[in-house]
Amino acid sequence: MRRNGRAALVLGAVAASAALAGWAVRSRLALVRVTGMSMAPTFVDGERLIVRRTTAVRRGDAIVFRNPVRYGAEDDLRWLVKRVAAMPGDPVPREVRPAVHAVRGTAVPAGSLVVRGDAARTQDSRHFGYVPTSTVLGVVIGGARGRSVADAPGGGRLTAGDVG
What we know:
Oligomer: single chain
Largest sheet: 6 strands, antiparallel, barrel
Strand content: 25-35%
Structural class: alpha+beta
């Protein structure tokens, strides 16, 4: 009887540890699926990306953030993937100035980012302006098939159900 009790206790501890580990991973990472070609050739339609949940980003990072433009009930446009082009304190890039009503020498304000897609034709800060840092889900750290961002040759839109 004692042996069965110990086995049950060990099994319970293992199950609890596995559940805790699963929660820890899920709270730090998200798996997202790209829909669209705005980050091609870096990320392509249908590719799955691993995202580290954080708001600490650097210039050049590919990030996932809440779409600043509302498209009604279209859930697949709720999240975007783009590359950070300018950080708070950096000069506003020339091509973004009209969208944010800035003049030469204006700096990106605190709490804001300028983002650009990798593809030639993409909706980004040139169209919708600054991205609030509070809307950032995280930084893309690799592909689900093991390809790291550094290995990519160069956001697409994300389906909301794919953002964990």
